[in-house]
Structures are given as structure tokens and as C-alpha cells.
Amino acid sequence: MATRREPLTSEQREVVRAAARYADTWIALRARTQRVPGVQVAVAVTGDVLLSSAHGFARLPGTDGADDPGEELTTAHLFRIASHSKTFTATAVLQLVEAAALRLDDTAGEHVAALAGSPIADRTLAELLAHGGGVVRDSHEADFWQLRREFPDADALVAACLDEPDVLERNERFKYSNIGYGVLGLVIESASGLPYAEYVQEHVVGRLALESTGPELDQARSGEYATGYTGLEALDRRLPIDPVDTRALAAATGFFSTAEDLCRYAAAHVLGDERLLSDASKRRMQRGEWEIEGTDDRYGLGFDIVTIAERRTIGHGGGFPGHITRTVVDPQDGLTVVVLTNAIDGPARELVQGAVKLIDLALENAEKPAAEPAADLASFTGRFAALWGVTDVVDLGGRLRLVRPSQPDPTVATGKLEVEDADTLRIVDVTGFASPGERVRYVRSDGRVVKVTVGGLSAVPIEEHVDALGDLDRIVLGGPHVAG
What we know:
Elements: H1 10-33, E1 38-45, E2 48-59, E3 71-72, E4 79-82, H2 85-98, H3 125-129, H4 154-161, H5 178-192, H6 196-205, E5 228-229, E6 240-241, H7 250-253, E7 255-257, H8 259-267, H9 279-285, E8 290-291, E9 298-299, E10 304-308, E11 311-320, E12 323-329, E13 335-341, H10 348-367, E14 382-386, E15 389-396, E16 399-403, E17 415-421, E18 424-428, E19 439-445, E20 448-454, E21 457-461, H11 462-469
Antiparallel strand pairs: 1-2, 1-13, 2-3, 4-7, 5-6, 8-9, 9-10, 10-11, 11-12, 12-13, 14-15, 14-21, 15-16, 16-17, 17-18, 18-19, 19-20, 20-21
Helix pairs in contact: 1-10, 2-5, 2-6, 4-5
């Protein structure tokens, strides 16, 4: 059961800010070791962006020829955020419900005459929003996802709706459907009298003044997009993927944005913020309609609901050719974490969840202040490296932790550290494999840490370890790689 949370105090926000800075270093390391071209990160509380960063490349060196130096990723680069689009579409539908232009129990056929004769015509808007309509995911010919042909236009979308689209009984189970959300885009056009892109731009994006967000590929901003890349499963190098329009499936997958803009958008879905929707409508959207089989997640109306440790979050992921993205927001206290990657195998969900767990660990620590330490905690913190890898000593909410940042969950088996004196920590509360009761000893020169011994193994600041490896082509006994 997720814990109900109160709004974060100013002191807690500072804890979040500090923890987010460390989480960002963990994300950067994970992205580098998994050879992700680029990753954009933002952490916010109710739209107040506490961290915004970018690591890696918007365009890898050599993408446009051997002499291409590449382009470093910035926080301003645009990403295709794919199925985040469903949250915008669901928001638009609920706005029209509030305006009495739609009802959730309306059928799609009541608003889109071209669907007459299709089983989808009988599906309700609520069923389509919650993926409960049993509708085919992407049509029976979906190779537009592989750029073998264009995404469907409105006529092709309607044709897909007439081509045996009801693969399951309605309300049989959760069944994800981009076609269903394409139909919702047509419903929005019918009910509002505006093209889908124009409606969401004016009534959702525009209301929040999101200058780096839009419902479809914007050719006028082509130089601002991060290049998307293939995965590494089939080929041991990444190929760039050309950006494409999503046409009639924009309501399902067309949007672009930045991590910062998504933080500001998420704030409008926090309870108490009624710039886009009433709290009553938001609660309806954020209520779990379906369990998602094989996971602990649920799905509401346009939002998935994921409990991370004890924090109940709403949000969405996005998978587009060349981009994997993820946003989570706690609708009670407004904590928001966004990670955008420009690779089709980018670990966005893993990185978001790890960041949330680190932040919550810091908040938990801050609630139970430690006794006055024998030395300044900051004098112990840092990233240290040796042959066996990297170890972080980090201050999370006023307590020192020993973290292995190579782990997909950085909070697993983190060791609590107690200060014994100005140069010694004691490892406590870890697994038996992780040296409980042993010491972390520091060697300093001119006030700077030059060596740390953890469980008897020496390590040095990571920059010095990298320098020590230099141009080595082999590790030998007693070689120059030896720490200290």
C-alpha cells in the first residue's frame, strides 16, 4: 500500500535537490556503461525544477560522416516522447467532458461517423482511454513502426478500424492499443471542431506555456531534435533513425518535449492545480482501472500507475524509433522525475525508478537526524574507483551511505556508514557479503582525499584511477593501475 504524502516543506525540497544531484551522477554512470548516446534528466516538485541536466550526445560522432564531431546533448534538445502523448489526449478528452461536449460513456461511433460498421464504433471513450476495448494494438500491418512505410493517415486509420480490430472482448483485460488512441484523436476533432493538433496546442500545451512541447514532428525545429538511434542487440554499433510524422496516430504517439517541460506539464496533474482539469477529473484519470498483467502496475485513463517502493506515482513511458522516455509524478506531493534517452534500448524506466528511490531514501534519512558527527560529512563523500569497480560515499539526507553506482537499483544493499573520527567510517547494516562492521579509512594530503580503503580494498578518486590506467593494454601484478 502506497503511503499518502503531504506537500514537501522547503527543507524537504532542499533534501530532494541534493539527492537529485547525486542521482544525476548515478544516471550518468549507468547511461555511459550501457552506451546510451544521450540522456536528459529533470527533477521537480510541483513544477519547480530542482535539477536539469544532460549527458552524452544529441548526435554521436561519425553519424553524418567520418569527420562529423557529433553534437553534445543539452537540456534544450527535443525528444520524441511517444506514448506520453496519451496523457495529453486523455487530458483533452476530460476537458471536453467537463465542457459537456463529451461523456465518458459515449461511444466512438457517436462522434466519428466513418466508424459505422466497425466494432470500435461501440467502444466507449472510457474503454478506449483505459485500454479496455480489446482493440488491436497497431493494426494488422504495423511496419510503420519500423519505417518501412508512413504512419497511417485518417483514412488508413479508419480502414484499420474496419479490419477486424476487435481481437479481444471488450473489458476482458488490459490490452494496450495505439489504434484506440488514434480514434480518440478523431473524437476530439469531432467534439471540438478543431484539428487534434490545434486543440491540444491551444488547450493543453498553450495553457501551460510549454515552449518546447508539441503534438507532432515540427520540421521548422528540425535542428533542435536529439537524433534517435538503434539498439545494440542485433548490431554492435548504433545507427541513426530518421525522424518521421505520426499523422493520424499523433494522439497516441506524436508528441515531442524536453525533460524540463514535462516536469511543468506533470505539475498540472498534481492535485490542487486546476489549470487544465478539476481535481475530480484528475482523480478519475488517476484511478487504476486495470491491473497490467505480469507487473505490479495499473492503468487509469491515459496514465499508468506505478508504485515505487512506497510512493504511488502516475505518469507514462514512451517508445519511439530511436527514443525511450519516462515520466513519473506523485500527484500528492508533486515530486516529478523525467528521463529521456535517444536510443531504442534506453533504460529510462530503470533510471527514473532508481532516482525516485534515492530521493526517498534521502527524505527518510532526513526525518531521523543522526547524532552530531565527529567530522563534516562532506569531507567523506566522493566517487572512488579500483579494479573491482566504483564505490560512492554519499550524503543522503544527512546520513552517509556506501553505494555501488553500477547497480540498476542504487538503493539495494547500500551500506550505512557511521563516523568514528575525521578519517574513519564504520560500515553498518549491510548484507554479510558487504563487510559489515569493517572500516572505511581515508588518507588525505593537503586536505584532499588521495586514498580510501573499503573492506581492506584500496580505491582512489575516480579521476586518478582513470589517469592511472592511461594507455595500458593489460593489467599486471603490481602494475601502475594499483590504487594509492
